[in-house]
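USER:
Class, as today's exercise, take the chain set out below, and explain how the chain folds.
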Amino acid sequence: MTTVTLQEAKDHLRIPEDYDDAYITGLLAAAEGHVAGYLGDDLPEPMPAPVRAAVLLLVGDLYEHRERQNDRALYENATFHLLLNPYRSHEVL
């Protein structure tokens, strides 16, 4: 299985209802696109557990911080990089 499913994302977010399905599907597409760009290649197939976890981590961040402005500082999650760095393409362009 290559992509993270809507049900996996909803389980990760702990959302049993269906009212945000379209929104979460969009977040999944954005997160997978960002992860693929960060890796410098297409998403690996089959998708290793650390890459899957990074996609879900990003979906969670995007869902939780859906507003552009916050009243508190947001910090980059180092776990995202720790999960993905072993899978990054190191090709010289």
